[in-house]
Q: What sequence folds into this?
């Protein structure tokens, strides 16, 4: 249809060849790479805030009533606000912007051979709205009454009634911040999906697309299809809180469980929204550093689709003890246990990919391997929670918390470090320091396990979530359990300290690292065919790549080199 | 200001980029409206008390608004036809008429709501009206945004520029029309 | 496999663009008139006073009108098939959401609780309790 409409553009394809000023280049850019950096740095800054909050509340848990260095005494209200904002920040302002927006923005045009996203100005606008959402959330820390403390899940009536929450302004700002973040990602998602669908290089068929691009696209689709009811719900919650409506007020005919359903209908697909990009990053890294083809590309793709579809059918496993219809609980148990199958299948394909490969234990590879190992633990502990019977005991205990940290941490933290250490040479034209990278890796992974394995034990022993001071509970205030809490906290402090190694490595390498060649890892995908860092437009207009094969042709028999880039004709 | 990237001109998925994007936007909007409408239906079917409040919505106002939106949709698609034929000024005029329809819709709504509020039916006077104002308000917001975009598109269209955008905003407008096609029986007829 | 053009190879399922030009546009005004007639039907339905007739005319007409607008105005039938699948899928998700949520939200009473039915009744009840 539209091809027949005469389309006259105000500008032609050429760019005006003037050097952009600081503002145009760094703050007002429409270049997908710059927008990716904006998302990444914002996400990392928010991670430091979220990590700091974790430090404070863990110190309170380990040493109740003591003054926390750099914070002071932690009151119960402050404790609630810290855990609430830690959760919200890590999911909405760290995991999503870094894994989807930063890596998606950076990689998708480069890996499909395009010069930018299809809607560069919409891209810029999406970051700006995202930034505003972060600022709105941060502003809630400074208002009267303080920040919202009703958990990232915002259940009414605590969140809908200012008399209960005691944070009238903080609650409103929190809901608005989340809403704006959703809108930013809806806009960003359009760019990712349409660019990947339409703007592929000539010759790039569906099965030639790198897995990480597929994963980010599927994640964007999942997000767009699941967030709607929660946007409606957020509006309803805002009205309950501020305008006296009663959507969720049972005393006036409303239903708080409706909120839970609206929230988790989104909340569950959301975890797969962040999982899939991380899984994609791991796929790229293990193929390169095992010098081996992905064991079953189509299987990975179809299981990703299957996981995505199934993720819409499991949501009420978060509500098993909320008073839902027990017959529905049976249904959701079955679907929840089922969803572990495609995800496990993906892990099996990765292990099969590694088997017999020529493994190079570089820093990115260490991160990718640890993802598989740690996520496996997270996945299997989910089984106990997905079965409604065991969940009756384990719900709202630290067992749940340890389970989702064993999934989220690999996703958000390991996935990010894997991706950054792998693509840093391309992004910044410099190599990161391998020794520092390995020190950072071990200094993160070992303490990580020492934080959360104790929490499994504590949860099974009955320690409940969202409690400010366990000395009030005689059965839990016993020495062995207190020791475990302290072990977890001290390990967290050690882990946070080791993050300084990453920051030093990152910034030192940025300015003083060895200059990176185009393709330091001898990889196949298209981003490695252009300069490090790529110029504006990624390739010269007359040098845009065409594609001749899939992305994982490593160690192909009969060939001299053990890799075969996608853009090379023979 | 960057020129249009080469990426935007490719269409490996068999559809021009803009149109593909609009359909994805529609898909995500279906879920937003679907959420509020599904919640409303659950309440409506289980609260006898809603019948009392629902009786006070005036069907003929809703029907008039339905007529207005349907007519504006006609102008939108005629605008698309004009754009296809390369007649930018005519497409722009059709878009103006569509926007006018949206304006009439909003004006009628303003009077309708003013009347309701003066009778004590506010956002918080009963749960039926909470849903009524939230759902219809969300829809009205989409009407207003659509009008704004149409005015922007018509400015380029009347100079025969970016004519493909006429179709794109038209698809969005038809979707907004379809949401009202369902809100009308839900809020005004099913009593 | 590779082409030298900036345009990607077209997937085989695409309708060639020019075929749509030659296909007759539906007569938009005619479709519009049908829509108006349907509107009148949906208004007339409640006049009969029979509940199921009202519901069938109101919602049946709505579905039919939506179909006409989608097909003739949005040209959904001319778009690649996956667009239709996409729309169908998200609609299905809405049905899924309803199916998973309604058993809880529509339940008005349990073993030891009941939801206040009527707003006024609840308000009166609340008043009585507090004073």
A:
């Amino acid at each position: 249809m539209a091809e027949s409409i005469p389309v006259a553009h105000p500008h032609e394809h050429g760019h005006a060849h003037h050097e952009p000023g600081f503002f145009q280049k760094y703050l007002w850019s429409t270049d997908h790479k710059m927008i990716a950096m904006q998302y990444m740095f914002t996400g990392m800054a928010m991670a430091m805030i979220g990590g700091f909050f974790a430090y404070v509340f863990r110190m309170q848990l380990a040493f109740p009533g003591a003054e926390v260095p750099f914070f002071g005494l932690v009151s119960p209200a402050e404790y609630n606000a810290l855990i609430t904002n830690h959760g919200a920040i890590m999911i909405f302002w760290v995991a999503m912007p870094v894994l989807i927006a930063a890596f998606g923005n950076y990689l998708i045009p480069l890996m499909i051979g395009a010069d930018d996203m299809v809607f560069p100005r919409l891209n810029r606008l999406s970051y700006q709205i995202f930034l505003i959402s972060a600022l709105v959330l941060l502003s809630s820390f400074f208002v009267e009454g303080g920040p919202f403390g009703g958990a990232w899940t915002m259940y009414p009536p605590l969140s809908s009634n200012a008399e209960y929450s005691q944070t009238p302004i903080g609650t409103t700002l929190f809901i608005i911040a989340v809403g704006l973040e959703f809108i930013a990602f809806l806009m960003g998602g359009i760019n990712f999906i349409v660019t990947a669908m339409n703007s592929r290089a000539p010759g790039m068929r569906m099965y030639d697309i790198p897995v990480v691009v597929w994963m980010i696209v599927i994640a964007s689709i999942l997000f767009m299809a699941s967030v709607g009811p929660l946007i409606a719900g957020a509006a309803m919650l805002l009205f309950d809180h501020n305008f006296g409506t009663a959507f969720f007020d049972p005393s006036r005919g409303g239903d708080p469980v409706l909120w839970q359903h609206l929230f988790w209908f989104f909340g569950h697909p959301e975890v797969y929204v962040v999982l899939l990009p991380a899984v994609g990053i791991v796929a790229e890294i293990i193929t390169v550093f095992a010098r081996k083809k992905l064991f079953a590309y189509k299987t990975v793709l179809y299981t990703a689709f299957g996981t995505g579809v199934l993720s819409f059918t499991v949501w009420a496993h978060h509500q098993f003890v909320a008073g839902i219809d027990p017959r529905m609980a049976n249904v959701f148990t079955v679907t929840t246990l089922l969803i572990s199958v495609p995800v496990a299948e993906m892990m099996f394909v990765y292990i099969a990919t590694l088997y017999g490969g020529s493994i190079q234990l570089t820093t990115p590879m260490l991160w990718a391997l640890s993802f598989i190992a740690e996520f496996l633990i997270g996945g299997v502990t989910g089984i106990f929670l997905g079965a409604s019977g065991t969940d009756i005991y384990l719900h709202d205990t630290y067992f749940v918390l340890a389970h989702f940290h064993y999934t989220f941490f690999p996703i958000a933290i390991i996935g990010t470090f894997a991706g950054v250490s792998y693509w840093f040479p391309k992004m910044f034209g410099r190599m990161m320091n391998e020794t520092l990278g390995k020190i950072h890796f071990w200094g993160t992974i070992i303490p990580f396990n020492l934080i959360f394995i104790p929490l499994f034990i504590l949860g099974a022993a009955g320690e409940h979530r969202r409690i400010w001071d366990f000395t009030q509970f005689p059965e839990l205030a016993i020495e062995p359990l207190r020791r475990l809490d302290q072990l977890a906290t001290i390990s967290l402090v050690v882990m946070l300290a080791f993050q300084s190694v990453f920051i030093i490595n990152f910034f030192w390498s940025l300015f003083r690292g060895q200059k990176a060649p185009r393709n330091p890892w001898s990889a196949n995908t298209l981003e490695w065919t252009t300069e490090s860092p790529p110029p504006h437009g990624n390739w010269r207009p007359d040098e845009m790549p065409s594609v001749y094969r899939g992305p994982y042709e490593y160690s192909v028999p009969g060939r001299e080199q053990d890799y075969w880039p996608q853009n090379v004709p023979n | 200001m960057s020129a249009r990237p080469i990426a935007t001109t490719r269409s490996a998925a068999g559809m021009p980029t803009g149109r593909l994007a609009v359909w994805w936007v529609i898909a995500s909007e279906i879920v937003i409206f679907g959420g509020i409408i599904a919640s409303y239906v659950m309440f409506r079917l289980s609260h006898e008390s809603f019948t009392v409040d629902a009786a006070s919505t005036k069907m003929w106002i809703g029907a008039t608004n339905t007529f207005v939106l349907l007519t504006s949709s006609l102008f939108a698609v005629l605008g698309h036809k004009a754009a296809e034929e390369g007649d930018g000024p005519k497409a722009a005029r059709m878009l103006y008429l569509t926007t006018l329809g949206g304006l009439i819709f909003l004006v009628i709504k303003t009077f309708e709501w003013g009347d309701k509020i003066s009778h004590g039916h506010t956002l918080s006077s009963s749960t039926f009206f909470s849903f009524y104002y939230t759902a219809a308000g969300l829809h009205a917001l989409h009407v207003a945004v659509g009008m704004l975009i149409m005015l922007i598109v018509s400015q380029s269209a009347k100079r025969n520029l970016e004519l493909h955008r006429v179709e794109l905003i038209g698809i969005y407008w038809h979707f907004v029309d379809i949401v009202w096609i369902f809100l009308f029986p839900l809020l005004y007829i099913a009593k | 496999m590779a082409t030298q053009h900036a345009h990607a190879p077209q997937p085989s399922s695409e309708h060639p663009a020019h075929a749509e030009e030659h296909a007759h546009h539906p007569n938009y005004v005619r479709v519009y008139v049908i829509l108006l007639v349907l509107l009148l039907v949906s208004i007339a339905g409640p006049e009969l006073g029979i509940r199921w007739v009202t519901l069938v005319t109101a919602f049946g007409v709505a579905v039919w009108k939506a179909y006409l607008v989608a097909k003739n105005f949005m040209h959904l039938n001319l778009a690649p098939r996956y667009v239709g699948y996409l729309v169908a899928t998200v609609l299905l998700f809405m049905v899924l959401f309803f199916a998973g949520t309604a058993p809880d939200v529509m339940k008005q009473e349990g073993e030891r609780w009941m939801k206040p039915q009527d707003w006024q009744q609840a308000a009166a009840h609340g008043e009585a309790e507090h004073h």
Q: What stands out?
A: Residues 80 and 147 of chain B are 16 Å apart (CA to CA). Helices of chain B lie at 6-9, 17-46, 49-54, 59-84, 88-118, 127-157, 164-189. The longest helix of chain B spans residues 88-118.
